[in-house]
Amino acid sequence: MRRAGDIMKRMRLLVAILIIWLFLFYNIERLSRPINITTVAYVFLPLVALPTILVPRLRKVPLWVVLVVPVSLFLALKVWVGFPVWGLALPLTVTEICIIEVTAILTRWVSNGVAELEDVVARITIGFVERLPEPFSKGQAQMYREMSRARHYQRPLALMAVGVDEKSINVALDRLVQEVQQAMMKQYVLSDVARTLCDELEEYNIIARSNDHFLALLPEMTPEELADLAGHLRQSVAEEVGVTLQIGTASFPQDALTFESLVEKAVKNMDGEQEEERSLRPQLLVTERHAM
C-alpha cells in the first residue's frame, strides 16, 4: 500500500509536468515572438506522445530508439512537406528536435509509471503470480490424491498452514477509510506471500488458498525437513515482503492419519502460534515492571 501511494504521487507529478510542458509548447509563440514553430512540429508532437502512453509494448523498446526514430521521422516529414531544415532554419530545427526529445522522455516516464501502477493493482487482486495458488475447493482434490498415495506407499508427507500476522502489516490509516485500506493492504500482502511461496516451494508441492491463509501440501517431506523449511519461508517472506508469517505444520503419519485431521492440526498449530505470542506479552510486561 505504501508503494502504491508512492507511485500515485509520482504519477500525479509526472502528469502535471507533462501537461505544463505541452501547455508551454503550444503557447511558445505567444511567450517568445521570434520563435515560429512549424505546423509539422505541432502535428507531429501528439504522434510521439500518444503511442508511447497507449501502447504497452513500446515500454520495452530501448530509450535510444525512442529518441532517435521520432527525430528521424520528423526531419524526413519536414523535408517532404517543404519546410527548410538547414541554414537559417537550423536554430528552429534544433529547438523543435529538443522539444520532441523532452516530450518523448516525459511520456516514457508516464508510461513506466502506468506499468508500475498496473503491477500493484495486479498484485492486490493476486493475479500477477505465474504459479497462482488455487482456491482450496479446487486444490483439495489434488491434496487428497497425494494423501492416498502417501498412505498406500507408506511415504512421508507434510501439510503447512501459512498465514500473516496482521500486526506486522504497518500502514497509516485514516478513520473513514480504515477498513477499505486494511482490506486492500491485506490482499496486497497476501499476493506477495503467494508469490514467495510459489517461488520457494517445489513444483510438485500443492499450494491452495483457504480464506486468509494458505495450505501447502509437501509430498516426501519429513518432520525434520519441515522445521527447516518453515524457518526458511519465514526468513524469505520477512526479507521480500516485510511481514511475519504464522506457520502451523502437521506430518503424516506422525500427527494425523486422514487429510481432514491433517488440515485441522496444521491450522490449529498456526492459530496456536499466534495465541502463544499473545500469552507471552503479559509475562514480559510483568517481568519488565519487576525489573523497574
Q: Can you walk me through this structure?
A:
The chain is built from nine helices and five strands. It has 292 residues and is α+β, with helices and mostly antiparallel strands. It folds into two domains: 2-124; 134-291, 2-Layer Sandwich (Alpha-Beta Plaits). Strands 1-3-4-2-5 form a five-stranded mixed β-sheet, sandwiched between helices.
Q: What's the alpha carbon Rg, rounded to whole Å?
A: 29 Å
Globular, elongated, flat, extended or rod-shaped: what is the shape? elongated
**Which CATH architecture of the largest domain would you pick?**
2-Layer Sandwich
Main β-sheet, in a few words?
A: 5 strands, mixed
* Straight-line N-to-C gap: 39 Å
Q: CATH class of the largest domain, please?
A: Alpha Beta
Helical amount: 55-70%
Tally the structural domains.
Answer: 2
Count the strands? 5
Order of helices and strands: HHHHHEHEHEEHEH
- The share of residues in extended strands comes to 5-15%
At CATH level 3, the topology of the largest domain is: Alpha-Beta Plaits
Secondary structure layout:
Elements: H1 2-26, H2 28-31, H3 39-54, H4 63-81, H5 90-124, E1 134-135, H6 136-153, E2 157-164, H7 178-200, E3 206-210, E4 213-219, H8 223-240, E5 245-252, H9 259-291
Parallel strand pairs: 1-3
Antiparallel strand pairs: 2-4, 2-5, 3-4
